[in-house]
């Protein structure tokens, strides 16, 4: 019955007569859930999101960020689901995939209709331009369906994300995005701030993989420890990939500054040439930022990489004034992912003059290294490395490498190669 | 001839009465030779006469409140006075001197020394001014503006004047002389010392890669301030220098302690030292360049202290 209806809807959608949204809308509600995070003591809701059933025995998929508070502070928060028919009940967390922002839940509901995965979506060969329907419960307003298009995977992103042209709103997180025949193509995850209708989905294959993993597992692990493990696994893969790509150098005045070679960093250039009032120095800068931010808790997002190069040259300022300006430019600012007292340990720094022994194209440098550890996660650090060239008193290159959520050894290896990439061009 | 001098609370002469007799009576009643308007003084309080040896002798005439040597609590009835020590009757201080009292030799007018402090103060003021202006100039990286120079100069100049003025006023009230030039000298030397220390600390932090002088600059600043306060107090009077020194030292220790506490609390709130990492022109580097290997060996050493911090904060983790 269901299959026939879906097949019919697909055929109608293909012929362009009946909008696919209506058929999808008709069959979806019993498969959807609203997930609320409640204060364990008070029973008041602190946040809500969507989820969808993927098995007859009550397994459901949502976003990690919808349930993060319960994972991190299980004594303070608990979860509750609301189904389309108004039924409510407790939710058990079975597994999380932090890098892909996914979580598997179990609710006490048997014989309920559920979504299945689209095989093409799992293989990753959906056709660009295909219609997708994202569903959820935006802003707690009630069940909503949003029609949009599949645009393939997002470029310059380390984690695979589907670029979906449609308006995802808060509260739709964790809902499914389905094809016209009602099969899962992805999981709603985020909207790009500042863009219109630019939204992201987690590809279906990650959800499928996590579901298999949870099914094969007999006991539920300590999810809080699991998160620590996933973060460190994710970051070691991230920094391995970053290190494998290495740094390429970009010419800035007489210097060559390091830039990221990895495709998932986007780089921009800036100059102060047109500034008014006319500045007393010329500055050309490049900055590369990664699209690798990782949601860990509502107040902690980390995992970004930034590379900045500032080439400054002056004819007007004297050498002391120039040094004053370089001082302002080279302060150690670690990228901040969340409130310090809750997530971080105190920062410690080391500063010195560094020079290559025999290589003539290596400028002498003033180098500052600052690092701070994460309170909760062992072996995880935020690091900033700043190098200022010391070969001339009227021009300099200030290069800065900021790494979030990195292992100390990885950071040192990258730092070494970063300093190595600061060169004089012939 | 016997001279009786009524003294102020600061032991300056407030009134001087010469009596052409060999005996002088002092008291509140009008039949005395010297009349004292002090309700705590007896009508006939004190008699001064010459003994056989020709010395002056003060004799209490049986007053209720008694007669004392200045600074002493022992009541006296009869005492040979030397003209140097003052006596107290009631709440009045007085001094009795004979006509043949040997005064100190005439002081020489310090003609050159008077000019010297003025020249010194002006020279120092010009130096400090030039120093401050130079520093402001060397820190300018934006559009040149006159107000960048004028505002700090006027405010710091005003502060200096107020500081010197307060000390001069205190000195004037307590010691009778304001010593304006000397107080200015002390303040200017203190300011110059602070400026020079700051330059040294900046140089050490960059050129020698030794940031301690810069990190503890606040302690040096308080010490210089304390030393200046001590010298100002010494200008007021050279008495009780040990006591003054101790008080200043205690306040100094307290100030440094409080600021150290504030800084450590700010550090635990923010997780970073509130210090600027200074750069100077490359020519100021005074230590040799280090090889990248050596630098990263130090950086690796930093990990140990970061991890130690973390273990201390979460003792449970060490066992895991």
- Helical proportion of chain A? 10-25%
Low-confidence stretches of chain A: 1-18
Number of separate strands of chain B: 11
Which secondary-structure class do the elements of chain B indicate? alpha+beta
Low-confidence stretches of chain B: 316-320
Strand order of the largest sheet of chain A: 15-16-19-23-22-21-20
Give the helix/strand class of chain A. Answer: alpha+beta
Taken from the alpha-carbon principal axes, the silhouette of chain B is elongated
Major sheet size, sense and barrel closure of chain A? 7 strands, antiparallel
- Report strand % of chain B: 15-25%
Question: What is the N-to-C order of secondary-structure elements of chain B (H for helix, E for strand)?
Answer: EEEEEEEEEEEHHHHHHHH
Distance between the termini of chain A: 75 Å
Number of helices of chain B: 8
Structure description:
The complex is a heterodimer of chains A (426) and B (320). With 426 residues, chain A is an alpha+beta fold. Chain A is 23% helix and 38% strand. Chain A has a 7-stranded antiparallel beta sheet, sandwiched between helices. In chain A, strands 1-2-3-6-5-4 form a 6-stranded antiparallel barrel. A 6-stranded antiparallel β-barrel of chain A has the order 7-8-9-12-11-10. In chain A, a hairpin with a 6-residue loop joins strand 11 (184-191) and strand 12 (198-203). The model of chain A is unreliable at 1-18 (pLDDT under 50). With 320 residues, chain B is of the alpha+beta class. Chain B is built from 8 helices and 11 strands. In chain B, strands 2-1-11-10-7-8 form a 6-stranded antiparallel beta sheet, with no helix packed on it. Chain B has a 5-stranded mixed beta sheet with strand order 4-3-5-6-9, with no helix packed on it. The model of chain B is unreliable at 316-320 (pLDDT under 50). Chains A and B meet through helix 7, strand 20, strand 21 and helix 9 of A and helix 6 and helix 7 of B.
């Amino acid at each position: 019955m269901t299959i026939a209806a879906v097949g019919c809807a697909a055929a109608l959608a293909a012929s362009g007569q009946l909008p696919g949204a209506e058929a999808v809308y008709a069959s979806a509600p019993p498969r959807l859930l609203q997930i609320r995070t409640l204060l364990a003591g008070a029973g008041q809701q602190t946040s809500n999101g969507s989820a969808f059933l993927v098995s007859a025995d009550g397994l459901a998929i949502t976003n990690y960020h919808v349930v993060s508070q319960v994972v991190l502070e299980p004594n303070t928060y608990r979860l509750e689901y609301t189904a389309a028919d108004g039924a409510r009940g407790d939710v058990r967390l079975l597994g999380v995939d932090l890098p892909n922002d996914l979580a598997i839940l179990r609710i006490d509901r048997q014989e309920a209709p559920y979504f299945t995965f689209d095989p093409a979506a799992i293989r990753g060969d959906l056709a660009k331009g295909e219609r997708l329907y994202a569903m959820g419960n935006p802003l707690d307003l009630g069940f909503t369906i949003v029609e949009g298009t599949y645009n393939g995977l997002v470029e310059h992103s380390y984690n695979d994300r589907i670029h979906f042209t449609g308006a995802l709103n808060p509260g739709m997180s964790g809902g499914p995005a389905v094809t016209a025949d009602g099969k899962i193509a992805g999981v709603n995850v985020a909207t790009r701030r500042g863009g219109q209708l630019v939204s992201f989905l987690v590809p279906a294959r990650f959800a499928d993989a996590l579901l298999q993993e949870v099914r094969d597992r007999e006991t539920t692990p300590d999810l809080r420890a699991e998160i620590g493990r996933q973060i460190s696994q994710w970051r070691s893969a991230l920094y391995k990939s970053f290190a494998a790509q290495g740094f390429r150098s970009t010419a800035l005045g007489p210097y060559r500054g390091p830039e990221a070679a990895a495709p998932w960093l986007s780089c921009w250039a800036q100059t102060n040439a047109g500034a008014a009032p006319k500045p007393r120095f010329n500055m050309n800068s490049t900055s590369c930022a990664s699209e690798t931010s990782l949601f860990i808790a509502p107040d902690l997002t980390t995992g970004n990489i930034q590379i900045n190069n500032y080439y400054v040259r002056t004819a007007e300022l004297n050498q002391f004034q120039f040094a004053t300006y370089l001082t302002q430019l080279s302060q150690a600012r670690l990228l901040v992912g969340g409130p310090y007292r809750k997530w971080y340990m105190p920062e410690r720094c080391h500063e010195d003059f560094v020079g290559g022994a025999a290589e003539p194209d290596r400028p002498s440098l003033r180098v500052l290294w600052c690092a701070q550890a994460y309170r909760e996660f062992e072996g995880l650090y935020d690091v900033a490395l700043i190098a200022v060239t010391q070969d001339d008193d009227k021009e300099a290159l200030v290069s800065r490498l900021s790494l979030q959520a990195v292992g100390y050894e990885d950071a040192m290896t990258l730092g070494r190669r970063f300093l190595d990439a600061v060169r004089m061009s012939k | 001839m016997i001279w009786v001098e009524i003294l102020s609370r600061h032991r300056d002469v407030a009134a001087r009465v010469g009596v052409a007799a060999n005996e002088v009576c002092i008291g509140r009643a009008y039949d005395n030779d010297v009349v004292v308007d002090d309700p705590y003084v007896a009508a006939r309080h004190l008699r001064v006469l010459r003994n056989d040896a020709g010395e002056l002798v003060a004799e209490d005439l049986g007053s209720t409140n008694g007669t004392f040597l200045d600074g002493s609590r022992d009541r006296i009835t009869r005492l040979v006075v030397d003209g140097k020590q003052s006596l107290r009757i009631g709440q009045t201080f007085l001094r009795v001197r004979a006509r043949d009292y040997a005064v100190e030799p005439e002081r020489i007018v310090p003609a050159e020394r008077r000019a010297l402090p003025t020249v010194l103060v002006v020279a120092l003021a010009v130096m400090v001014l030039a120093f401050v202006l130079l520093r402001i100039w060397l820190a300018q990286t934006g559009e040149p503006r006159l107000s960048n120079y004028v505002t700090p100069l006027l405010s710091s100049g005003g502060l200096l004047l107020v500081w010197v003025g307060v000390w001069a006023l205190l000195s004037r009230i307590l010691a009778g002389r304001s010593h304006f030039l000397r107080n200015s000298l002390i303040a200017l030397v203190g300011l110059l010392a602070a400026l020079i220390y700051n330059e040294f600390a900046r140089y050490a932090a960059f050129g020698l890669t030794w940031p301690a002088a810069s990190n503890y600059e606040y302690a040096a600043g308080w010490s210089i301030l304390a030393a200046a306060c001590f010298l100002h107090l010494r200008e007021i009077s050279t008495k009780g220098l040990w006591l003054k020194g101790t008080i200043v030292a205690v306040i100094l220790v307290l100030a440094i302690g409080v600021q150290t506490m504030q800084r450590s609390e700010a550090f635990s709130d923010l997780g970073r030292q509130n210090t600027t990492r200074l750069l100077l022109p490359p020519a100021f580097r005074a230590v040799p360049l280090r090889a990248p290997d050596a630098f990263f060996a130090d950086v690796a050493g930093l990990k140990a202290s970061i991890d130690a911090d973390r273990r201390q904060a979460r003792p449970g983790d060490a066992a895991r």
